[in-house]
From TrEMBL:
<dbReference type="InterPro" id="IPR032675">
    <property type="entry name" value="LRR_dom_sf"/>
</dbReference>
<dbReference type="InterPro" id="IPR003591">
    <property type="entry name" value="Leu-rich_rpt_typical-subtyp"/>
</dbReference>
<dbReference type="InterPro" id="IPR050216">
    <property type="entry name" value="LRR_domain-containing"/>
</dbReference>
<dbReference type="GO" id="GO:0005737">
    <property type="term" value="C:cytoplasm"/>
</dbReference>
<dbReference type="InterPro" id="IPR055414">
    <property type="entry name" value="LRR_R13L4/SHOC2-like"/>
</dbReference>
<protein>
    <submittedName>
        <fullName>Leucine rich repeat containing 28</fullName>
    </submittedName>
</protein>
<keyword id="KW-0677">Repeat</keyword>
<dbReference type="InterPro" id="IPR001611">
    <property type="entry name" value="Leu-rich_rpt"/>
</dbReference>
<dbReference type="Pfam" id="PF13855">
    <property type="entry name" value="LRR_8"/>
</dbReference>
<dbReference type="Pfam" id="PF23598">
    <property type="entry name" value="LRR_14"/>
</dbReference>
<feature type="domain" description="Disease resistance R13L4/SHOC-2-like LRR">
    <location>
        <begin position="105"/>
        <end position="190"/>
    </location>
</feature>
<keyword id="KW-0433">Leucine-rich repeat</keyword>
Length: 365
C-alpha cells in the first residue's frame, strides 16, 4: 500500500495533476510525500475520504496553495490547524464524520469558501467568524451538539442552504430572517420552542424542515405554504383534540422572549416605545438617499439592535413591529397544508400589529 501511495503521488507531481484521489488508503497521518520540496503547486482537488487521519499539517496551504476543494469526510480528525485559514482559494471543505470538538476562528479567513460541511462531529459551538464567509452558499452542521447558532451568521449574505438537524438548538436567531438568498432551512430533531416571526418572509425561502421538535407548537403564517416537514412537532396526547382557545394559549407560551407585551383585541393604545421605534425605523431605513442623517448612536445598544432586527412584521399589512404583537392562531386543518401533513398537530400563528389587522386577517386570503 505504501509503494502504491508513493507511486500515485509521484505520478501526480510528474504530470502536474489537478485532482488527486487518496480515498480508502488507511492513512493515519498526512502523507509526507505531498509536502516534500515544493509540494503539489498545481493540485486543485484533494480527496482523502475514509481514512484515519487525526489532524492536518500546519504547512498545508504552503505546499498546496491552489487547493479549491478538500474532502476529508469520515476520518478521525479532532482539530484542524489555524493555518487552514491560509487556503485562500478554497471553495469547498468537507469535514463531515470526524471527531471535531472545536472549530478554529481562522475558518473565517476562507473568504472564497462556498460549501462547508461539518455534519456528524462533536461541535458544541461555532465560532462567530463563520459570519465572515460572505461567499458561503451551503452550511451543514447537522448531527452535532450545538445549543445555538452564531448571531453573526446573518452576515453570510450568499447562504442558500442551511442544515442544522439533530442538535440541541432551542431557538433560531431572528437575524436569519435577513438572509434574503436562503432557499432551504432544515432544523429537524432539535429543541425548538418557537420560530422567528419573520421566518419565511423572503421569497427565496422555499423549503423548511422542522420535523420532530416536540415543543414547537406554532409556526408563523409566513411559512404556511413553505413548510415541507413539520411532523412530530407540538405532539399532544393521542386522541385529544385541543379547542382553539387552548391551542392559542399553548402557542402564546412559546412566543419569543424579546416580545415584551402581547396585545389583545381590546388594546387600542400603542406603547410609546413602539411608536418611537417605528418612527426611527422609517427615518433611518426609508430616508431619501440625499438626506444625510447620522445613526442614532445615543440609543442604548439593546434598542439599536432592535432597530436593525425588528421582532417581526405584521402578516396583514407588513407594518414593522418592535414591542407588541397580536397573535392569531390558524389550525393546520384550515390551511393549504392540511392535506399534506394529516397527522401533525402544529398550528400556524399570524402576528399582527393592531387589533384591526387581527380582525381582518385571513390566512387563506
Amino acid at each position: 500500500m505504501a509503494t502504491e501511495l508513493h507511486e500515485t503521488i509521484f505520478m501526480a507531481k510528474q504530470e502536474r495533476h489537478k485532482n488527486l484521489f487518496l480515498n480508502y488508503k488507511n492513512l493515519n497521518i498526512f502523507p509526507v510525500e505531498l509536502l516534500k520540496d515544493e509540494g503539489l503547486q498545481f493540485l486543485e482537488r484533494l480527496y482523502m475520504k475514509r481514512n484515519s487521519l487525526t489532524t492536518l499539517p500546519d504547512n498545508l496551504a504552503q505546499k498546496l496553495p491552489n487547493l479549491i476543494e478538500l474532502y476529508l469526510h469520515s476520518n478521525n480528525i479532532v482539530i484542524i490547524p489555524e493555518a487552514i485559514g491560509n487556503l485562500a482559494r478554497l471553495q469547498s471543505l468537507d469535514l463531515s464524520n470526524n471527531a471535531l470538538q472545536l472549530l478554529c476562528p481562522e475558518i473565517g479567513r476562507l473568504r472564497s469558501l462556498r460549501h462547508l460541511r461539518l455534519s456528524n462531529n462533536q461541535l458544541k459551538c461555532l465560532p462567530p467568524e463563520i459570519g465572515d464567509l460572505q461567499e458561503l452558499e451551503t452550511l451543514d452542521v447537522s448531527m452535532n451538539q450545538l445549543m445555538s447558532l452564531p448571531d453573526r451568521l446573518h452576515r453570510c449574505v450568499s447562504l442558500q442552504n442551511l442544515t442544522a438537524d439533530h442538535n440541541l438548538l432551542s431557538h433560531v436567531p431572528r437575524q436569519l430572517c435577513w438572509l434574503h438568498r436562503l432557499n432551504q432551512l432544515s432544523m429537524a430533531a432539535n429543541r425548538l420552542t418557537f420560530l422567528p416571526l419573520d421566518l419565511g418572509r423572503s421569497r427565496e425561502l422555499q423549503f423548511v424542515f422542522v420535523d420532530n421538535n416536540v415543543d414547537l407548537k406554532g409556526l408563523p403564517s409566513y411559512l404556511y405554504n413553505k413548510v415541507i416537514g413539520c411532523s412530530g412537532c407540538g405532539v399532544s396526547s393521542p386522541g385529544v383534540e385541543m379547542d382553539l382557545a387552548e391551542a392559542l394559549t399553548e402557542a402564546l407560551v412559546k412566543l419569543p422572549a424579546e416580545v415584551k407585551v402581547v396585545g389583545s383585541e381590546t388594546d387600542n393604545i400603542v406603547p410609546l416605545e413602539e411608536l418611537t421605534m417605528r418612527t426611527l425605523h422609517r427615518i433611518y431605513h426609508h430616508r431619501p438617499a440625499d438626506l444625510n442623517l447620522q445613526p442614532p448612536i445615543t440609543l442604548p445598544k439593546s434598542l439599536l439592535d432592535l432597530l436593525r432586527f425588528p421582532l417581526g412584521h405584521c402578516h396583514r399589512c407588513s407594518q414593522v413591529m418592535f414591542t407588541i404583537i397580536y397573535p392569531k392562531l390558524f389550525p393546520l386543518r384550515d390551511t393549504a397544508l392540511a392535506g399534506v401533513h394529516r397527522r401533525t398537530t402544529v398550528s400556524f400563528v399570524a402576528y399582527c400589529c393592531s387589533s384591526h389587522c387581527l380582525r381582518t386577517f385571513d390566512l387563506q386570503g
